[in-house]
Design goal:
alpha/beta; Rossmann fold; 6 domains; 41 helices; 10% strand
Length: 977
């Protein structure tokens, strides 16, 4: 018995976990029922889940001699409750009970047998192996028997398949008809995005569920994801849920290798690069240790994932209609929103419908798409609300006044209606059963709450102490609650907790989230969670947030990076700002690989949380990291030099105080880079030189070589081409000394960066023949393995080279390539350079109007997004040249004067050289003596800059202006004669 009792305990717990009752203990086994006394529409599924849970739990005892066998059958039984004074037991009898017992006897040890009737109603959730028909003792005819193998992924619509009986969908015929019509358009290859919009509780999710069920009944595949109420604290949660649904991944119950195989099998049927798989697996939390994802620029990594999401839609067979459903879009986090937008773009011209629902007030870019259709859900009319009440209450005359009162208070909101009805039923003021109630007393004896919050609060108040405690913890844990976390925090004995959760289920405050093996429960509506949470005193909230965070850390050590933002949320609300900052840092590092914008927000949150924390070694380190990374990510996201200075000064001060030489040098270099974006190129050089001087006092050769590479970039932007080339060659010769951590900090392949920059520098130096092999070397690489910016640099350099040589074809080819890659990457910095380059290619081809349009667009985009502003002076100079060639001298002079002003302010010598050459030509051609004299001076300045920078690519252009000077002087001499 000592060995048997733990097994019996586990079997009992598994039954209770899934809402069943153990009605009989039979020595070395138990008999359990599901669907009675508490009815469950999914009773067969619960029985199968309990059986599987029993087997798994017994295996965890690690006693090889202990095995159990289980039989499951579905059918009607004679059921009765037996009173024992202070408690009840239950009994069941009939042929179906006998069949379940015989299946258990037939099963081999360690297996589960189910009947055809059980499988018929549970097949959406289970996997079986058919064993054929078998003779059963006591039954005349053989019975079809199947072995239960495991579970299969259940859709998120399962929320509506569990718990209470649903009222008929009422008053939504027009909306349903609209969805059906749009589905037909989609079937014809005109994919649509449909937004179902309305207030909380209006029935958006229910309408989408009914439509999804209708689609499934027609054989149409539906993929789903729900956005949770705390979605903004958990980046990518709905995206991960959707992708795992599409791939059929069961992360928790299958080995990672199996999940990875599912992904590989799906990718094999798609036209995607082999290099995508490691990136996608890492994103899904299935990183293969033997095939790690390449280190890419975060923007490039995210671009690959966004592109894949689109390809996933476009690759679907056109003869199969697919529906993608995203529930509660209004809670979407910014990181996930971009993926939803990618889906919205991808459905165009496909047989896929994207169906989303959200509360009124949300504004999303997808709503501006031409293929977007919106369904606005209005409140139900009084007659429709009365219909719902009749289905729930019945038609007894005693309910007439009450029903009118409820309809008036609910204002046509189905959720409000159902909550008001449930509150009255649970209060015990009715006789009879659902659909046939009678009011016990007069209407005046029922104190109906005036708001839904009051209704929910009143319902919570009527719970027993254990149920209240469980609900309090659940309200703090979130919309969806892990039962192990609830168990760890609630402070209740296991039987008490099971009873409390059962009570909350029966009160229809919580429901089980399928697939049930994940042991999640959820609030039936966010308003229930909000009311329960607001009812807590602030100190109690802090205590529970801390306890929930501790439980999550202890229980869920896998995929910790995914949970870091959620942990940060709980620690922050617990008042533990240091712990919250540590988790935000962890989240920033994780999400930064895919979304720099989200990473920047997380780093800013780290600093915010630590602003009022007392100094300590850990606090100072976190502040330094946060401020340094804000500076590091800033240039990508358009942070101005003025805004970045505050973070730089703080990071530098902390690094100095901590004696962290390495951090201090890299902070200087990062700040210099952000200064170059709209600031001074010379200051960028100075910052890197300061960092280099600091590094040279130490022995860290990796940082020293890294700074040489960065200095090459700074010198190039400041127009010191020969020095940049020399520094590039020195860095390239020692690039192998750069350690892995510094390469990861940079986020790209240093050698490729140096090669691309060297080719670009040689083009500026007028050494095109030497540049071509270097540029071609980068062009021949696999683009999926190269940072997007570095992969485009050769094309930008080739357009400059083509401009100097007048090669229209070369310019057009590389400008088109650069722009296509920029658009694909979604990188604003790259977009500025690529569009400006395309404008220059139009200039080479003589398409002056197109050139002006592209250059103007690049200029506007750079200024709006505050990205790539170090190229502003060059864009203005090229724009001035385009206006000059068009013959618009006034516009040309305006643009060139601005170009010179910007170039001088930012110490951008090469654009200044070009701009002064353009201005010299304009003034010399004016025909006026004073302007001609000024033009000659401009030419002298341009010539001096040409030699100072070494940018001999502009020598022919400067020389052309020189010819204009000679012609002007000859003309003046002739006039004097």
């Amino acid at each position: 018995m000592r060995r048997l009792q733990p097994v019996l305990d586990l079997m009992n717990e598994a039954v209770h976990r899934y809402g069943g009752v153990v009605n009989k203990a039979q020595g070395d086994g138990v008999m359990a029922m599901f669907g009675a006394p508490q009815p469950h529409e999914d009773h067969a599924v619960r029985g199968c889940l309990a059986a599987l849970a029993m087997q798994d739990d017994v295996k965890r005892l690690h006693d090889v001699d202990l095995q159990i066998r289980v039989g499951v059958h579905t059918g009607e039984v004679v059921f009765q409750a037996i009173e024992h004074g202070i408690y009840q037991t239950y009994d069941a009898a009939g042929a179906n009970v006998h069949l379940a017992s015989r299946l258990e006897h037939l099963a081999e040890p360690g297996t589960i047998l189910v009947s055809r009737e059980t499988y018929a109603v549970a097949k959406q959730f289970v996997e079986v192996e058919a064993l054929g028909e078998q003779a059963i003792r006591g039954l005349a005819a053989p019975v079809e028997v199947l072995r239960l193998r495991g579970l299969q992924h259940a859709p998120s619509s399962g929320v509506f398949r569990t718990g209470r009986r649903l009222s008929p969908l009422t008053g939504r015929a027009d909306e349903f008809a609209t969805l059906t019509a749009e589905l037909e358009n989609t079937r014809k290859g005109d994919g649509r995005v449909i937004g179902v919009v309305g207030e909380a509780g209006i029935g958006k999710s229910r309408l989408c569920f009914e439509f999804a069920e209708s689609c499934r009944s027609k054989g149409i595949r539906v993929f789903e994801a729900r956005v949770l109420a705390h979605g903004r604290a958990t980046p990518f949660q709905p995206v991960l849920a959707l992708l795992r649904d599409i791939f059929g991944l069961r992360i928790k119950e299958e080995p990672p290798d199996v999940s990875r195989r599912r992904v590989f099998d799906r990718l094999a049927a798609m036209p995607v690069s082999d290099h995508l798989a490691p990136v996608l697996l890492e994103f899904l939390g299935l990183a293969d240790p033997h095939r790690p994802a390449p280190k890419l620029d975060p923007k490039a990594r995210k671009a690959q994932l966004l592109d894949f999401v689109g390809e996933l839609v476009r690759a679907a067979p056109r003869d199969n209609v697919t529906v993608v459903l995203i529930d509660d879009l209004h809670w979407i986090d910014p990181a996930s929103e971009e993926f939803v937008e990618a889906l919205a773009d991808a459905v165009v011209g496909t047989t896929t419908m994207l169906l989303v629902n959200f509360r009124a007030g949300l504004t999303a870019p997808l709503m501006q798409r031409s293929h977007y259709r919106q369904i606005n859900m209005a409140p139900l009319g009084p007659a429709e609300a009365q219909s719902i009440l009749r289905d729930h209450f019945g038609t007894d005359p005693s309910l007439a006044l009450l029903s009118r009162n409820i309809v008036e208070r609910a204002h046509g909101n189905p959720f409000f209606l159902e909550e008001l009805m449930s509150a009255l039923v649970e209060r015990g003021d009715f006789e009879g059963e659902k659909g046939a109630y009678r009011l016990k007393g007069g209407i005046d004896t029922i104190p109906l709450p005036t708001t839904v919050q009051a209704v929910v609060a009143a319902r919570i108040d009527r719970l027993d102490e254990h149920a209240k405690r469980a609900l309090e913890v659940a309200s703090v844990a979130g919309r969806e609650i892990s039962l192990p976390v609830l168990d760890a925090v609630a402070g209740l004995a296991k039987p008490e907790l099971l009873e409390a959760v059962g009570h909350l289920r029966r009160a229809e405050l919580l429901y089980d989230v399928p697939p049930f093996e994940q042991r999640l429960i959820a609030f039936r509506h966010p308003l229930i969670q909000e009311v329960a949470y607001l009812s807590l005193l602030h100190e109690r909230r802090r205590e529970l947030h801390a306890a929930v965070a501790q439980a999550i850390e202890k229980l869920f050590k896998d995929r910790a990076e995914e949970r870091a933002s959620l942990l940060a949320y709980h620690w922050e609300h617990a008042g533990e700002h240091l712990k919250a900052a540590q988790q935000h840092m962890r989240a920033a590092v994780w999400v930064g690989a895919n979304d720099p914008s989200q990473a920047l927000r997380s780093w800013k949150k780290v600093r915010e949380l630590l602003m009022h924390q007392p100094p300590s070694q850990m606090t100072d380190y976190l502040k330094m990291m946060a401020c340094g990374q804000i500076v590091n990510f800033g240039w990508r996201e358009g942070v101005s030099a003025a805004d970045a200075q505050v973070y730089f000064e703080e990071a530098r001060g902390l690094a100095l105080a901590m004696g962290d030489l390495r951090a201090n040098t890299l902070i200087h270099a990062a700040y210099g880079r952000i200064l170059a974006n709209g600031g001074s190129a010379d200051e960028y050089v100075q910052r890197v030189l300061e960092a280099k001087a600091l590094a040279d006092t130490g022995t860290d050769t990796s940082v020293q070589v890294t700074l040489k590479a960065i200095l090459c970039h700074a010198l190039r932007l400041s127009g010191r081409m020969s020095q940049a080339l020399q520094m590039n060659m020195e860095a390239a010769a020692r690039a192998s000394e750069i350690v892995k951590s510094d390469r990861e900090t940079l986020g790209f392949d240093v050698e490729i960066w140096l090669t691309a920059m060297r080719g670009q520098t040689l083009v500026m130096l007028g050494r095109g023949s030497e540049a071509r092999p270097l540029l071609d070397r980068v062009l021949q690489l696999d683009g999926s393995q190269v940072d997007a910016i570095h992969y485009v640099i050769p094309s930008l350099a080739y357009v400059d080279l083509a401009w100097s040589e007048g090669d229209v074809g070369l310019a057009q080819h590389h400008a088109d390539r650069a722009f296509a890659l920029a658009v694909k990457s979604g990188n604003p910095y790259l977009r500025v350079y690529a569009q400006a380059s395309r404008g220059l290619s139009h200039l080479v081809a003589g398409r002056i109007t197109s050139s002006i349009e592209d250059l103007s667009a690049a200029l506007d985009f750079a200024r709006t997004r505050k990205a790539g502003l170090e190229n502003e002076a060059r864009i203005l100079a090229d724009l001035a040249n385009a206006y000059r060639l068009k013959g618009d001298a006034a516009a040309a002079l305006s643009a060139v004067n601005e170009a010179i002003a910007v170039a001088v302010k930012r110490h951008a010598r090469i654009p200044e050289c070009l701009a002064r050459s353009v201005r010299a030509d304009l003034l010399l051609r004016s025909g006026r003596g004073d302007e001609a004299e000024e033009g000659a001076k401009e030419l002298d300045r341009a010539t001096a800059l040409l030699h100072e920078t070494g940018a001999m690519i502009f020598a022919p252009f400067v020389g052309g202006a020189g010819k204009t000077v000679k012609a002007s002087r000859s003309s003046n001499e002739a006039n004097n004669i």
